[in-house]
Every structure is written in structure tokens, then in C-alpha cells.
Amino acid sequence: MQRYKVTLMYDGTDFAGFQRQPNKRTVESVLTKVINKMAKNPQPAIKIYGSGRTDAGVHALAQVVHFDFPFNIPADNMRKGLNSMLSMDMEVLKVEEVPATFHARYDVSGKRYLYRMDMGEFRNPFKRHYTGQWKFPVDLDKINQACADLVGEHDFTSFVASGAQTRTFVRTIYEASCWVDKANNELVFEFYGNGFMYNQVRIMVGVLVEIGSGTRPVHDILRLYEVKDRKQARRTVPAAGLYLKHVYYQGEDPEHPTKLPQRQR
């Protein structure tokens, strides 16, 4: 058995998220079907393991999965073979042969996300699957002051949706920033941390745009850490604007070393 690490991108519009669900089209189910077809449908079937889940409508610029394949195929041939069979809303960017000890989820040391927010007064039907929308004026300096409050190790209880399956809400954010993409009239948010929980990025962006619009104090994030109350964070921005940009593994970013979580067997 050869273990492969696969980096892929996908348009999340027509997927019900990454994780397999009964009677729904998901990234995991589509990719698993193609991989098993390439392997001539072995028994037991090949399973794939992702770096983490993305929700319905969320996009990925570089998601990572691994799987064990019963034949040793050169990595580039594996990439070409998968792409020849995948639908147009998914593309494999890179395939690597990795040791059997590699795990796409448990070896992750950090993730980087983007969020795109259209600033047009009217909803653009051609961007509705790829951006959120915020039509109110914002103060970019205030937003970036608030972004600085996100950096560091904090308890993000106020920023996690109900249903999050995690033992602790403490996470570390290494970088948080916002800028204006003038060509597309968009606010672009970028976050890099050792891990993000269910809807965390979308809730953080909701708080930041309210700060930028003046409906929250600049440093309200510090208060939200203390109250540990999801209801006080209020808004969850749409999934369409969220992109998984990069998944980091140990040794890829020595500037932000992260202790790996203990593997679950």
C-alpha cells in the first residue's frame, strides 16, 4: 500500500460541505468514489482523510487529504488520473508519496483562511457564490486595530457556533489582517492560526465589520473573550465568502511552530 498526500482546490457552491453525508454531494464522497474507481473498486473500499472539514458553500484553494492506494502509481500520474475523472468544480493541484506515518488531519500545525466581502451597495448576482456582502461604510484602521486583538492565544468561546465538536475553545492566531481589494471592490480578511473551530472565522468577520462600521467599540473583542457568550458576537457572515487558503504541516513554517495534538487511534 502506498500512502498519497493530495492537495486540491474546489468550488464549494454545489457541495454540502467536505464530510460525507447520506444522500448528499460532498467533497469526501466525490473524491472517494473517483479514487476507488481508479483502484478498480477494492474491498474494503479506500477511505480518504482530510485536514479538516469545510462547511456547505465554503471553498478551498488548497485542501489536503491522504489515502492508502493498493498500487504504486507515480505521483504525477496519480494527479493526472484523478483530474481526468473529477468534476469541473474540483481539481487536484499536487500529489506526493508520503510515509505511512503521515496523517492529513493529525499532523496539521496551522491553517490559513481568506474571507472576501463585497462592498457594493447592491448584491451582485455574479458574486453571490463567492463573497459575502457589506454595503455600509467601514473604517479600515478600526478593523485592523481589532484584528490585532485577535492575535495570540485566547479562549474563543464567544466566536464558536453551537454544535462545535471540540474539548477546548482555546486557539492561537498568529496573523489577522484586512485590506481593500480596490479592483473588485472587496474587503479581504486573512487569518492564520493553529486551528479554527466551527464557524469561527465567519463569526470573527461578522464582529470585525461591525467594528469597522462603528456599531461596536474598537476593542470589543477583548470583552467578548471575557463574557464567553456566543449570542453577544451576534452575526455569522455567509459561507460563500470563505476560502481555506493553505494547510501547514510541521516544519513548513518554523516562524510559528505548533505542538501537534496527540493522535487519536
Automatic annotation (TrEMBL):
<comment type="subunit">
    <text>Homodimer.</text>
</comment>
<comment type="similarity">
    <text>Belongs to the tRNA pseudouridine synthase TruA family.</text>
</comment>
<dbReference type="InterPro" id="IPR020094">
    <property type="entry name" value="TruA/RsuA/RluB/E/F_N"/>
</dbReference>
<keyword id="KW-0413">Isomerase</keyword>
<feature type="binding site">
    <location>
        <position position="113"/>
    </location>
    <ligand>
        <name>substrate</name>
    </ligand>
</feature>
<feature type="domain" description="Pseudouridine synthase I TruA alpha/beta">
    <location>
        <begin position="146"/>
        <end position="249"/>
    </location>
</feature>
<dbReference type="GO" id="GO:0031119">
    <property type="term" value="P:tRNA pseudouridine synthesis"/>
</dbReference>
<dbReference type="Pfam" id="PF01416">
    <property type="entry name" value="PseudoU_synth_1"/>
</dbReference>
<dbReference type="InterPro" id="IPR001406">
    <property type="entry name" value="PsdUridine_synth_TruA"/>
</dbReference>
<feature type="active site" description="Nucleophile">
    <location>
        <position position="55"/>
    </location>
</feature>
<dbReference type="InterPro" id="IPR020103">
    <property type="entry name" value="PsdUridine_synth_cat_dom_sf"/>
</dbReference>
<dbReference type="GO" id="GO:0160147">
    <property type="term" value="F:tRNA pseudouridine(38-40) synthase activity"/>
</dbReference>
<feature type="domain" description="Pseudouridine synthase I TruA alpha/beta">
    <location>
        <begin position="9"/>
        <end position="107"/>
    </location>
</feature>
<dbReference type="InterPro" id="IPR020097">
    <property type="entry name" value="PsdUridine_synth_TruA_a/b_dom"/>
</dbReference>
<protein>
    <recommendedName>
        <fullName>tRNA pseudouridine synthase A</fullName>
        <ecNumber>5.4.99.12</ecNumber>
    </recommendedName>
</protein>
<comment type="function">
    <text>Formation of pseudouridine at positions 38, 39 and 40 in the anticodon stem and loop of transfer RNAs.</text>
</comment>
<keyword id="KW-0819">tRNA processing</keyword>
<dbReference type="InterPro" id="IPR020095">
    <property type="entry name" value="PsdUridine_synth_TruA_C"/>
</dbReference>
<dbReference type="GO" id="GO:0003723">
    <property type="term" value="F:RNA binding"/>
</dbReference>
